[in-house]
Amino acid sequence: EKGGYEHFMLKEIFEQPSVIKDTYRGRLLADQGIVRLGGLEDHIEKFINADRIIIVACGTSWHAGLVAEYIFEDLVRIPVEVEYASEFRYRNPIISEKDVVIAISQSGETADTLAAIKLAKSKGAFVYGVCNVVGSTISRETHSGTYTHAGPEIGVASTKAFTTQITVLAMMALRLAKAKGTISKPDYMLYLRELELIPTHVEEALKTDSKIEEISAVFKDARNFLYLGRGYNFPVALEGALKLKEISYIHAEGYPAAEMKHGPIALIDEQMPVVVIAIKSDHYDKVVSNIQEIKARKGKIIAVVSKGDTVVREMADYVMEVPHTPEALTPLVTTIPLQLLSYHIAVMLGRNVDQPRNLAKSVTVE
Ligand code: F6R
Fold this sequence. Notes:
The protein is built from 15 helices and twelve strands. It is of the alpha/beta class.
């Protein structure tokens, strides 16, 4: 049932090209300029007239929510707040019928997310679910929603659920941007075509696996890791750090790259591996200077770079290449090497990759 892979996690990482396709199949028709999500069509007005979109989730799903915040604000121009479900539900939040809540959950059973949904509903908000497990409690408790179609995720560490959640959220943003008129026709068509190409790009990123395994061998005994990214890839840095923590038990922190100078830079020495997402984007030059600051303090740089990059390649100790895609879609590819890095490190340390200590696949306790 692991399909020849040593662990479910590895199988699920390698399934991503095909499950991302499953997620957009029949919903994204790039040539015809169509994005159609059954659960969304009847509620488009609700979304585009909303005062705010509030996204509630936990863990990796919360990271997908953060990526969605960037995409929605960028393309749909609606203010978005992303909340840990556990904080939202306990702090007497201000919500009204003018708000739309998106709840993201792989399992559809997370107790805090469920409680946040019930609270939002009680205040009159419209609640939309993005779940993977069909018929799950959250999918039943929400007013409408979209399934991710990632198939069963067995490994406790979430991988394919994350990328398929982002795929759904990107499709939602494109559909809403079109309805609201906040995206130009050429940009809209470009995004649709580029989204359709993501499985091919993920496939290509997965081909760097053996290179990433070599990098993993170099750093497996590090005690701490820092993960840095900017913009759309700040949430990817958080997700990379979470993945490493949960399966290898190595301490890792994700940070927006520019926040380094406000504290974490004090941690940098020759012992500290720093994973930097340094792909070609609007922030490229800024990330390059962040890398210089780390190098000046002898930190070891493992950089995720765009294919063909030469500048960062010169400066970094190790690079992991990903194909080029528009910035809003880059989290779908930059996440891949980080998943593989944590997987290989955990395997080398003899960890129970599919069932890390103290963790459960569905967190049904509060
Ligand atoms: C991380 C992980 C957890 C879950 C979190 C939310 O790899 O698996 O952080 O993402 O418990 O779970 P769902 O998405 O099922 O609500």
